[in-house]
Structure formats: structure tokens, C-alpha cells
Amino acid sequence: MARKKISLQRIANNSNRRATFRKRRKGLIKKTSELATLCDVDACLVIYGEGDSQPEVWPSVPQATALLDHFKSLPDMEQYKKMMNQEDFVRQSIAKLWGQVNKARYENNERATALFLHDAISGRLPGGLAGLTVEQLSSLDWIVKTRIQAVNDRLRQLNAQAPLVRLRSILLC
User: Fold this and answer.
1) Tens digits of per-residue pLDDT, 94-106?
2) What is the pLDDT of residues 148-159, one digit of tens each?
3) Total structural domains in the chain?
4) A Gene Ontology biological process annotation (predicted)?
């Protein structure tokens, strides 16, 4: 069952904050354990609690130390190959969102041009094709050429399959 969205702010009540921290810490350890097991990767977790003198380490201090030593012994290029800080993450997210925006704009433009083509074919354009701008005419030209190419591709595909269809019908008779 999905939880309701919580606001990310400091919990003012000390006992509630500690209880929430314990629950979240337990869940984080469980998720890290599942990730390490299911993906067959080495993972460790170091959690510093408020007021704790020692951090909690998963799976154990020697295993976490060995894993961190192994990581530090790697060449710098290997260490930083897939490492990402918050700024890089935000930049990557922004670039991904811009890609989605551009894709949506392209699809919207294609749909608008298709509707425009349907209006032109059905004669619903006021003034006909004579009242169109150069941009509108080039969009119409592009979509007509695209659709003709799609029809030609489909015809080639059907013609390539036609001997097989005839052969099947002969064999079935």
C-alpha cells in the first residue's frame, strides 16, 4: 500500500523523530541488504544517528572497511567513473526532462500538422491552400511525404510476403 506524501522537514518532537529515524534506518538497512543480494554487488552502509557516539555499520565494520579499502585502492578513473554528486544528478535530470519536452513538442507539432492535413483534404481551411504560410506548406509537404513513404514501405512488405501467402493458399487447398 502506498504511503501518503510527507513534507520533508525536521520533525520537531524528539520522541517522534527518534522513532521515525529507527524505522527508516531499519528500512534502509533492509533495502541495502536486498540490493546486495539480488544484484550480487558489494555494498556497505554507514549511518550516523543524532547523538550516537558510534555510527551503525552494515554488514559489519571489518567487511565495510575492506570494501572501502578496496574502493580507495582503485585508480581515480575507476572510482569516479560512475560517481555522481547532487549537481551532476540535477543536470542529468534537467537534460532528460528537456529531451522529453522536445519529444513532446515534436509529437505535438506532428499531430497539429496531421490535423492541418485533414482539414486541407476535407476543404475546411478558409481560403484553401492559398492562404497558408510557407511554414505551414512545408509542414504539409513533410507529412504528405512521410505518409507516402510509409504506404510505399508497407506495399513493399506486402509484396515480399505475397509469394508466401500464395504458397500457403496452394498448400492448404
Assistant:
1) 999 999 999 999 9
2) 999 999 988 888
3) 2
4) positive regulation of transcription by RNA polymerase II
